[in-house]
Structures are given as C-alpha cells and as structure tokens.
C-alpha cells in the first residue's frame, strides 16, 4: 500500500514538473516546425528538443492563412535558434555549425537573385533597431559593409525599392534578402504570400 | 710595379662591387626596373574553392617580388577589414562574436608570430553592435575603427586604446551623422572621413520609393579632417554624388575618393584627387571598358601608381550554377605617368574574389 502511495506521489510530482516546464521544453519532431505563432523564437537544446526563447503572439494586422512550405529548412541540431517572422514562417536561423546552403554566391558590384522574405520589426538578432527600409543579406552569400545602399526589385511585380543593408543572418536557405513587413508590402506582394522572387544590387 | 697596378685594379673592382651590393640591399628601389613598385598590400579575399563553404582570407602581398603570404583563412560570415602591425606579429580584424541568441561583429586580435594562435576578442569593443574598417595609428598604441552603437542607426568613428583596452566613440551622442568610410595618415596623424546625414538619406530613399524611380538622388557628403583625438581640424569639402571610399596620399596633403553621379548597376565610377588645403577636386581616371566598378582607390607608397579593385569585363562567373554566378573582383593599378591600367592580383584561378585591401603605409 505504502509503495502504491509513494509511486502515486512520485507520478503526481512528475506530472507537476512536466506541466511547469511545458512551455520551456518541447519534444520536437525530426523537422523544424514550419510555422509557429508570429515572432516566436525557439532554440534547440538537443537534436529533437527545443525551448521557447520568445513566445510568439497573434498580430491583428497580419493574415495567418498562408503557406510556409516554400521555406527549405535544415535538420534541427543542438544550439540552432529559429526566428519566426510576422507571418509565422521561419525567417532567420542562427547557431548552425556552418551555412546549410552555399548554392548562391555573390559579392560587391553584382546582381543577386533569389527569394525575398520578411522579418519582424523592433530589434533584430544583432540588436539593431529596425527601420522600414533596413534589410538583411544572407551571410553565406553576400555581406557588404554596414549601411550599404541596396537597389532591390520584385521580379514578379517589377517594383524597385531602395533599401539600406544593416545586418546579415543565416536566412532560410533559398532566401537572399530579408526586408521589413512594411517594405515587403511596398514591393506589391501581400504579406500573406510570405515571399517573392527578386534581385538586388549594390556597389 | 705591374703587380701593384693589378692589385689596385682588383681592390677598385672589389670596392665597386661591395658598394653596388650595399646599395641594392639597403635601397631596393635603386635596382627596381622602371614601373616596378615596392611596398606591401594587405588583401582580404573570399573564395569558394571548398565547394561547400565560402572562406575569408587575409594575405600580405609584396609588390616588388609578387610573393604572397597567407595570414588567415576561415569560413566567411561577415565583412571583415583589418590592419597589421609593422613587425607583422599581430593582425587586428573585425570578426563575428556570438552570445546565446544575438550575434555581433567585434574587434579581435590575431597573433601571427612566433606561432599563429586563435583570434581573441578585444573586450573594450564588446558593447558595439558592429565594428569595421580597422586601422592602427603610427605608434601602434591606438586603433581607429567604424562602430555602430546600441540604439544608433548611424556608423561612427571610434578609437580603441590598446594599452587600457578602452574604446571612445567620437561624437558619441550624434544619432544622425553616418560615417561612410575613413582613412588614417601616419604622416600627419590625422583622420579623413566621408559623412552624410541619415535623416537626409531616409528622406531621399522615401522620395525615390514613392516615385518608383529605381535609383536614389545623390547625397551630400561632408569630407572632414580630424586629429587623432577626434577633434575636428576642418571641413575640407562638400561633395554631391555617391562616394564609396576615401584614402590619404602618402604625404597626407591630398586624398583620393571614388565617386559616381548615379547609383545603380549601370553607374560609372571616377577617381578624384582632393586637395586638402583648398578643397578642390580633380578627376584622375574613370572606369574603362576593361576595368569596371572601380572602388577603394589608394596611392602606392611612392605615389607613382593608384591601386584599386575592379571587375574585369572578360571575367567569367566563379560557378556555372545560376544562383552562384558571382563575377570576381581583381586588384589593378593605374600608372600616373603612362596612364595605363594593369591587373596586379587576381584570385580567379582559386575561385576567389578580392573584397578589400589596404596599401601598407
């Protein structure tokens, strides 16, 4: 009987501990979640577990019915941090041992082609206070000096916008430029689409 | 008598040979062929030789014998611009530094001699979000650099004291003046910088985007001269256009800058000489059909040539993969006497492109 009570007690406290940590540690599937609440940040503490660094929230002015399947995600690994953008799609991945993709290469003075995505405003992963026309380049492709003017074109709408490179990050592997949601809309593509084909230039 | 004459002739020849040898050893310029320049270049280049990784390389290039010494090679993650001590013992460079979630670019010291070690973080630069364009002063006790502070959108000039490990941001509270580029002259112990207003840039950007112009109107830059403590010596000039960079002449009395009137893929660049006394600018050379997208123009140590980066018109992309079609930049020179341009260093055969360099003063 005593053993039964002790076992019950242990089980009860185990459940309590699990409930307490339920928001901190989540058993992940073998793949990175392709959608989370907008602005969520998660960090993998092992190959199949992540903890929530920042809890996302539902944003009133963002439509949430969209498809994030276009983002090619790497396999999760310990130390990997995934930032979700205002659409809830992964937009920035840090903590990878090395860039997952080096399929594109470009340095100063050239035109870079690929997908453009958007990242939330506020403060970015480098601590920069993000302004409307700030943008981030893919770290393994192109990293011009801070403040470099960027001429970016949406190849689907033909709209060209002048931007300013402030930061760099390990963007989703098929993304070459990350812009703010308001700049994204100015390119003529609705935010719910999450991405578009583009090209950019800098000196 | 005959023997004495022979001996004297032998002594004369011996003395002559010793004199010539001494001259050659002490002054290599004396036997350099016409058009040959002495001095060294610190080069930063990126290569995709490893197929999967991009690698950042620092190398020291000897202009006289074309020998190159690779100083560091590591995966490329950030734009990096460094400086080397005169004894070549230390390389100071901007480099990525990460904490648990955020990543920054801070100043690092890499010990090269007697044995190469891992780069170490210079802790006095830790409170910046970004550090680049690192330059050592003449007595090698101070580093000048461009930094971005927290809650600032503008890059600013700062100095780093290597003895106390403390950094000082010049005009620390200014959130509008953005430093595009700067150079240091060991001859005059002064800094020259090109700066513009961030508010003006934002306003021109909004205007360009509202009109769907696809380009941005020229900025107005202030070219300022500072002493090594950050005190403004004088405003040298105001220049309208899009300036990429600026560099002192070896005597510190004039500077070179690269300018284009219109920003965009079809822009054409011209290198100007700026007289620091009266602020007047004189065009020296422009990009040609062979060498395009000129940047980072700098005088050779003897002022006979100007070195610069450019894209050659006949260069082939580094890869055939459509999205990996980067065209390499090479280092070229312009001879001020013959007005000829020549390629000096290319990394094309190693699937590389030169992204930054400095002429060691």
Tell me what the structure shows.
The complex is a heterodimer of chains A (203) and B (361). By secondary structure, chain A is mostly beta strands. Chain A has helices at 2-20, 181-186, and strands at residues 25-27, 41-46, 49-54, 81-84, 90-94, 111-118, 134-138, 149-154, 160-169, 175-179, 196-201. In chain A, β8 and β9 form a beta hairpin. Chain B has 361 residues and is mostly beta strands. Residues 24-34 of chain B have low confidence and may be disordered. The interface between A and B is large, with 49 and 64 residues.
Helix content of chain B: 10-25%
Q: Give the % helix of chain A.
A: 10-25%
What's the end-to-end separation of chain B, in Å? Answer: 56 Å
- Specify the overall morphology of chain B: globular
Give the SSE map.
The complex is a heterodimer of chains A (203) and B (361).
Chain A: H1 2-20, E1 25-27, E2 41-46, E3 49-54, E4 81-84, E5 90-94, E6 111-118, E7 134-138, E8 149-154, E9 160-169, E10 175-179, H2 181-186, E11 196-201
Parallel strand pairs in A: 6-10, 7-9
Antiparallel strand pairs in A: 1-3, 2-3, 2-4, 4-5, 6-11, 7-10, 8-9, 8-11
Chain B: H1 2-26, E1 40-47, E2 55-62, E3 68-75, E4 83-84, E5 90-98, E6 103-111, E7 120-121, E8 130-136, E9 142-148, E10 155-161, E11 166-169, E12 177-185, E13 190-197, H2 198-210, E14 219-227, E15 232-248, E16 254-260, E17 270-275, E18 281-286, E19 291-299, E20 305-312, E21 329-335, E22 341-345, E23 352-359
Antiparallel strand pairs in B: 1-2, 1-23, 2-3, 4-5, 5-6, 6-7, 8-9, 9-10, 10-11, 12-13, 13-14, 14-15, 15-16, 16-17, 17-18, 19-20, 20-21, 21-22
């Amino acid at each position: 009987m005593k053993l039964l009570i002790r076992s019950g007690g242990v089980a009860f406290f185990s459940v309590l501990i699990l409930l307490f940590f339920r928001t901190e540690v989540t058993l992940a599937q073998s793949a990175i979640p392709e959608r989370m609440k907008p602005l969520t940040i998660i960090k993998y503490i092992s190959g199949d577990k992540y903890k929530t660094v920042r809890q996302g929230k539902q944003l009133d002015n963002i439509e949430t019915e969209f498809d994030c399947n276009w983002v090619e995600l790497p396999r999760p690994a310990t130390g990997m941090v995934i930032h979700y953008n205002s659409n809830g799609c992964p937009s920035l991945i840090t903590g990878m041992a090395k860039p997952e993709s080096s399929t594109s290469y470009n340095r100063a003075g050239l035109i870079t082609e690929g997908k453009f995505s958007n990242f939330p405003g506020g403060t970015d992963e480098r601590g920069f206070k993000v302004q409307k026309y700030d943008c981030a380049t893919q770290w393994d492709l192109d990293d011009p000096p801070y403040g470099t003017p960027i001429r970016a074109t949406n190849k689907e709408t033909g709209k060209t916008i002048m931007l300013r490179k402030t930061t760099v990050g390990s963007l989703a592997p098929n993304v070459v430029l990350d812009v703010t949601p308001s700049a994204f809309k100015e390119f003529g593509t609705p935010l719910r689409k999450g991405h578009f084909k583009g090209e950019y230039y800098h000196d | 008598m005959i023997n004495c004459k022979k001996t004297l002739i032998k002594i004369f020849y011996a003395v002559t040979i010793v004199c010539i040898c001494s001259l050659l050893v002490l002054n290599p310029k004396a036997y350099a062929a016409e058009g040959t320049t002495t001095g060294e270049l610190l080069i930063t280049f990126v290569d995709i030789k490893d197929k999967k990784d991009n690698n950042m390389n620092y190398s020291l290039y000897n202009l006289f014998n074309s020998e190159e010494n690779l100083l560091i090679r590591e995966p490329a993650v950030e734009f990096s611009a460094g400086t080397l001590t005169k004894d070549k013992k230390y390389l100071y460079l901007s480099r990525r530094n990460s904490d648990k979630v955020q990543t920054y670019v801070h100043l690092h010291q890499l010990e090269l001699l007697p044995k190469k070690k891992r780069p170490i973080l210079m802790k006095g630069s830790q409170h910046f979000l970004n550090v680049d364009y690192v330059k050592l002063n003449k007595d090698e006790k101070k580093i000048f650099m461009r930094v971005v502070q927290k809650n600032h959108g503008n890059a600013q000039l700062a100095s780093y004291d290597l003895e106390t490990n403390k950094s000082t941001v010049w005009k620390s509270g200014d959130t509008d003046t953005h430093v595009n580029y700067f150079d240091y002259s060991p001859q005059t112990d002064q800094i020259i910088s090109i700066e513009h207003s961030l508010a003006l840039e934002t306003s021109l950007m909004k205007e360009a985007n509202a009109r769907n112009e696809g380009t941005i109107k020229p900025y107005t830059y202030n070219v300022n001269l500072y002493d090594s403590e950050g005190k403004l010596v004088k405003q040298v000039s105001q220049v309208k256009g899009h300036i990429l960079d600026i560099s002192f002449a070896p005597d510190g009395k004039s500077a070179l800058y690269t300018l284009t009137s219109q920003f965009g893929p079809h822009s054409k660049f011209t290198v100007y000489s700026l007289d620091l006394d009266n602020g007047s600018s004189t065009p020296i050379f422009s990009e040609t059909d062979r060498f395009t997208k000129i940047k980072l123009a700098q005088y050779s140590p003897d002022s006979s040539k100007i070195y610069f980066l450019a894209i050659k018109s006949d260069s082939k992309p580094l890869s055939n993969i459509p999205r990996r079609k980067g065209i390499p930049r090479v280092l070229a020179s312009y001879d001020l006497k013959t007005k000829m341009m020549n390629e000096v260093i290319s990394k094309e055969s190693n699937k590389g492109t030169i992204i930054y360099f400095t002429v060691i003063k």
